[in-house]
Amino acid sequence: MPPKAIIEPDAIPRDVVLDIEAIRKVNPQRFEMEQLTAITFFDEENMIIAGYKDIAEDEFWARGHMPGAPLMPGVLMLEAAAQVGSVFCHHAHVFPKADFVGLGGMEGVRFRGIVRPGNRLWLVGKVSKFSLRMTTFDFQGFVDGRMVFEAKLMGIPMSFSQATSESG
Length: 168
Prior knowledge:
Helices cover about 15% and strands about 35% of the residues. It has about 170 residues and is α+β, with helices and mostly antiparallel strands.
């Protein structure tokens, strides 16, 4: 049985508060890895954020996952949620010295439905733990009012120098 919705799907605000250009100012992903269309709700006091990704017919994965019946890969649903969390962290000044927020881990991932080209994937996140080293979000994804995934995602502060340095 799915958990209680952070925000009931029909109550998620629909007016865009951050469009793709505003998202690009804070999230470094581009091209195929941009997994957000807009943010529609930002409540810093209650630590809740909501936004969506419009799933296009020509998504890079649609041709091969699965041929003839394209399904959005679960890992991309989680990436979209992580990008929403990154927007929250930036606008709430969670990691003031970070260049961006990286995905630090995930727990309790459950896929409960299918996302296909033509769908709008709604993403709702609520901060459940906060520190200067890591912030944990409870995320839920919805399509047509039905929960399609739930997950706990951890965001960590990152710098561009960390992202470009070689590990060894």
